[in-house]
Amino acid sequence: MLDLSSTKGLQQIDREVSSWIRTLADETKKARAGQALHVSYKEGDKRNLVTDLDKSNQRALIEKIQAFDPTAHFVCEEAGEARAESMAGHVWFVDPIDGTLNFVLEDRDYAIMVALYDDGKPVLGWIYDVPEGRLFHGGKQTGVYLDDQPLQVVANTALADSVVIVSGRRLVLGQKPYGQMAKEARAFRVFGSAGISFTRLLTGSAQAYLSKLSPWDLAAGRALAEGLSYEVKNLDGTSPNMLLSNSVLIATSRIHREVVKMVKD
Prior knowledge:
There is one protein chain. This protein is an alpha+beta fold. It has 8 helices and 14 strands. Helix content is 37%, strand content 29%. The chain has a 7-stranded mixed β-sheet with strand order 3-4-5-6-7-8-9, sandwiched between helices. A 5-stranded mixed β-sheet has the order 11-10-12-14-13, sandwiched between helices. Strands 1-2 form a two-stranded antiparallel sheet. The radius of gyration is 18 Å and the shape is globular. The relative contact order is 0.13. It holds the Pfam family Inositol_P. This is Inositol monophosphatase family protein. InterPro entries: Inositol_monophosphatase-like.
């Protein structure tokens, strides 16, 4: 049975899952370089891709987690797995390749993401930036790390002094408050991958991220970002429902106040 009650127990879980993800990332890079990808489209959307590696990665991670934690429930990106109906107990989130469009078209800016929640609360998260070979891992109780290096709590910067990351699709569509947020920030960026966007927040090269995120897009990043004192909230100030998609702002508390005001005005 997993020990979630002590830092030592959480560190043991972190080490175990980190080892699986590193191995899987190496296998993914080799497979991407050495074989033709089998690509299909979800619901006929040519921007919403799935590959054979998305599916095999998800199955590999689920098998590892089930053997490690027989009480596990799952929320996964790819179809074919029984989905958790509530956040009670241990819920594991799996995004086997985040940024599949980037993965297929550019072979850059994609990640493997896993998270563990207990009774609705984020416990540990893992984001592996596969092309760059970087693992972000940990949580509030253990601290947050880039490989073996501890990361620092975020400085509470204002929007005018910050780099922000926004959803490109929603920016182009003119959805509120994406355009105003991008305009008032020092600079804005678009990456096409939630995982890669979160890595920018965790290293301090950006200070806010606004997008509509599915549960598997958000779960690992939330666990890590909250460990560095970012606020992770819906635009109405409520906590995200981790079983549904949410329009989520991950940002410093000062930026949160500024953006919430944009929404209300």
